[in-house]
Amino acid sequence: MASADMFPNVSFSDVNAAAASQEAGGGGKAVFGLDAASGAARLSLVRTGADQAMEIDLSDAQIFKLGRTEWLCVSGQTEAKPGVEEKLFSRAIKVVLRSEAESKAFSLAFQRWKQQMTSGKAGEPLENGSIMVSKSKFDTKIEASSAQMYFHYYGQLLHQQNMLQDFVRTGTYYAAVMENRSDFEGRVVVDVGAGSGILSLFAAQAGAKHVYAVEASEMVEHAQRLISGNPSLGQRITIIKGKVEEVELPEKADILISEPMGTLLVNERMLESYVIARDRFLAPDGKMFPTTGRIHMAPFSDEYLYVEMANKALFWQQHNFFGVDLTPLHGSAFDGYFSQPVVDAFDPRLLISPPTYHTLDFTKMKEEDLYEIDIPLSFVSSVGTRVHGLACWFDVLFNGRTVQRWLTTAPGSPTTHWYQLRCVLAQPLYVMAGQEITGRLHLVAHSAQSYTIYLTLSAKMWGVGAEQGGILQTSTAKLELKEPYYRMSQPQQYIPQDQQQPLSSLQAQGSGQQMQDGLSPGITVEQERDSAAFTR
């Protein structure tokens, strides 16, 4: 079902002579949507403080432009009284928008909702079939349950506060906009996934001619109050409720601004909506803030993290749990814990090689390029150690005319609410200093608005005969980006690689069932530390 379009702070009045004496003009809001009972498209005019709304059936309604911001909406009405023949008449409502830009958006919304009118409810049986409701591109690739949870999450102020209080995030956006006023002054801006509206307000502060804030969640109600509470800026901001895949705008944008980044840059799949907004709304040679993104990767060694994760499965090694042997499930539990990417802040000295990166150019890439991301990996270890997995983080560039500013989530930099992400191998690799590590990071998008991660790391031959190539060890992992382990405790005290003591009880790769289960039955490990709660 299409999202409703809402226009707050409009004024309207019934111009019929009979009604005019009873009903004075007043302020309120205009909402385009579907009638819950009939499924028909309607325009609801709701007066501020009133319980009831003027309902206009769009099936036979027309609008006529009276002025730059004034429209006359005419629709058919019926009047029926007991014992009196039913009368047909036309009703005319004058609607006044607060700006010319909103007036254009109102006209487009009217035409769009009128065109999608059907004669019955979605799914209602007809003589020759049933009515089908056309789905937007978003609806065809995303599960309805996932989308519902997603928009519910971002419709809550506590989650918006979590992001606003990320000083690195919010401060970098503010600096990128204000340092590049020349990109915004006198320009039309579209805020993609506006949330609380903070980026729209930044754009208005920088002198934007007009800002269209597009937001699909119920956060639009809060955003409207925030923008109305800043009238000097809010008069140049129009909030449009809906998905960027569905809404219509009255004009092209000179610049898009958005915060579409999730964990590992791509989680939540909002980057696809950002690219779609580019194709639908951005004028030729328009700018995008952010402009490009990079996923950085490097192998790491962290014995404490590995023990902590392996220790979680020890519960399932009990042979007598109230008389029940739990060990048949230990292998599955062990694999399950290692299928969770770890989200935390770690010491960059845990990295054993300089990082590499993969670039996503938001100005040129296709939406389909984000469905599957395949990244070849090649590193040279700087130390002899055990490789426990692949560490990842991201940064984005705001390529302004005046200043180029980066927002980074790198380890060692000021911590953000994205933290960093680590893919931990259930079977670590053993490498020597100077040994080459190769592999592949393969991300596959799915309908739950996230990705499945397929990681392969291999240690190449070392020493005599190494020039002939070949692989000594290989370890693989399959992880779900949507279900991470939020390990929000402070980074552990760094211990140099040569002082880290590997677990002697762990079997070498391929040495039988004990290695498959992760830990030998007699291993002793420290108890798992509590991890702090994390909201994202």
What's the topology here?
Blueprint: E1 5-14, H1 17-20, E2 26-34, E3 41-47, E4 53-57, E5 62-65, E6 70-81, E7 84-96, H2 100-115, E8 125-126, E9 129-130, H3 137-141, H4 144-154, H5 157-164, H6 167-178, H7 181-184, E10 188-192, H8 198-205, E11 210-215, H9 219-228, H10 231-234, E12 237-241, E13 253-258, H11 270-281, E14 282-289, E15 292-300, H12 303-312, H13 330-337, E16 342-344, E17 356-361, E18 372-380, E19 385-399, E20 404-408, E21 420-431, E22 436-446, E23 450-460, E24 471-480, E25 485-486, H14 513-517
Parallel strand pairs: 10-11, 10-13, 11-12, 13-14, 16-25
Antiparallel strand pairs: 1-2, 1-7, 2-3, 3-4, 5-6, 6-7, 8-9, 15-17, 15-19, 16-21, 18-22, 19-20, 19-21, 22-23, 23-24
Helix pairs in contact: 6-8
Counted by DSSP, the helix tally is: 14
* Oligomerization category of the chains in this entry: single chain
Rg of Cα set: 29 Å
Q: Care to count the β-strands?
A: 25
Q: Which structural class do you get from the secondary structure elements?
A: alpha+beta
Beta content comes to: 25-35%
Tell me, briefly, the overall form. Answer: elongated
Our measurement of the CA-to-CA distance between the termini, rounded to an integer number of angstroms, reads 27 Å
| Residues in helix, % | 10-25%
Strand count, sense and closure of the main sheet?
Answer: 7 strands, antiparallel
Low-confidence stretches: 17-24, 118-134, 503-536
Task: Please give a structural write-up.
Helix 6 packs parallel to helix 8. The longest helix has 16 residues, at 100-115. The protein is elongated. The two termini are 27 Å apart. 22% of the residues lie in helices and 35% in strands. The protein is of the alpha+beta class. It has helices at 17-20, 100-115, 137-141, 144-154, 157-164, 167-178, 181-184, 198-205, 219-228, 231-234, 270-281, 303-312, 330-337, 513-517; strands at residues 5-14, 26-34, 41-47, 53-57, 62-65, 70-81, 84-96, 125-126, 129-130, 188-192, 210-215, 237-241, 253-258, 282-289, 292-300, 342-344, 356-361, 372-380, 385-399, 404-408, 420-431, 436-446, 450-460, 471-480, 485-486. The chain has 14 helices and 25 strands.
